[in-house]
User: What shape does this take?
Amino acid sequence: MLKQAIENLGNHTIQGVWRIGFASRFFLSMLLHSGTAFRRFGLTIREMYFTGVLSLIIILVSGLFVGMVLGLQGYETLQRYGSESALGTLVALSLVRELGPVLAGLLFASRAGSAITAEIGLMKATEQLSAMEMMAVDPIARVVAPRFWAGVISMPLLAALFSAMGVLGGYLVGVKLIGVDEGTFWSQMQGAVDFEQDILNGVIKSVVFGIAVTTIALFEGYDAPPTAEGVSGATTRTVVTSSLVVLALDFILTAFMFRGLN
Amino acid sequence: MNRTVLDFWVGLFVIAGIGALLFLALKVGSMSTVNSADSYEVIADFQNIGGLKPRAPVKSAGVVVGRVADIRFDNEKYEAAVTLRLDKRYAFPKDSSAAIMTSGLLGEQYVGLEAGGDNQKLKDKDRILITQDAVVLENLIGQFLYGKAQEGAPK
Assistant: This one.
């Protein structure tokens, strides 16, 4: 009984370490084989359409609504202290620093990451990847790397769009609906938001999230058991793992970036 | 899907993304251009401006009539020279006074303009001569304590 439990634990540990090792080798070979993704940039552009352009609707709409809710709730709290003039600062800082990259990353994981995993998992299940290898086409260079770079390029753009839409939503609710002074809204925001400290750090965050989410999605798809059940399980794991990784990475990055800032 | 259609949408996506970044950098981040048409500038010197920031509103009788365009330190008078950009629609007498006020207890600071009785109006680049500084909480508390101490002093 006890022996069984210990064996189970050992088995899980070995499996886990093996998967991490495989994932690292996968990540490295993806970077090494990225040449094709840039030489034949059409491949990457095609994937950018599927990961980036098709995620636009959900990103834009979510951004707008998150900004509008921030405007409403922020005003509700700030007006108790008579400082509703800080609404612009509140909306912009929370969006640019945290909500923009993180929520865009989570949406990106569920909208684009799951699709990538399912696609690659099915390619593997239907032996398209093996067929490519037979024709001496490297599936990592031809299929995986373009998707990776498309995700890495798309993600910061999506996060920036999310933040911009959020600020617009906060503006609509705060200034147009509630009637906070427009000049104060923008001037307080501009006074508080620093280009390097806030906006650039947000962009760095979104690039890191893009790398993490796309890598997890690609690896789960590539590693999925070639069955219907395996692909569905891999898709679920992609969304769960990459969401958790985005949140954990966000905490680590925030701790490094904004420590000592007010 | 057609290759050119694909390229078009991706191009549009990239343009929109970079546009959003520019929006964040210019409109959300730093100063953007303030329209200078239909306005005139007057200068007011303060000994202490407290937490007044550029682009803060200038109010008269509670109505926004302009914005703070610029704040700089006058190294000859050792005072803060605040440039107010006022709307052309509103003309103020030459002996109007400017005061730095706070909206709410912890709110932002703004410049309050009080109209005087002069027949001549303020013109571009004129100076407002009567000003009232921002209230510094420490001074206020200091005065209060000093007054209390005086009161309680033995006669």
Observations:
- The longest helix of chain B spans residues 3-29.
- Helices of chain B lie at 3-29, 137-152.
- Chain B has two domains: 1-31, 39-135.
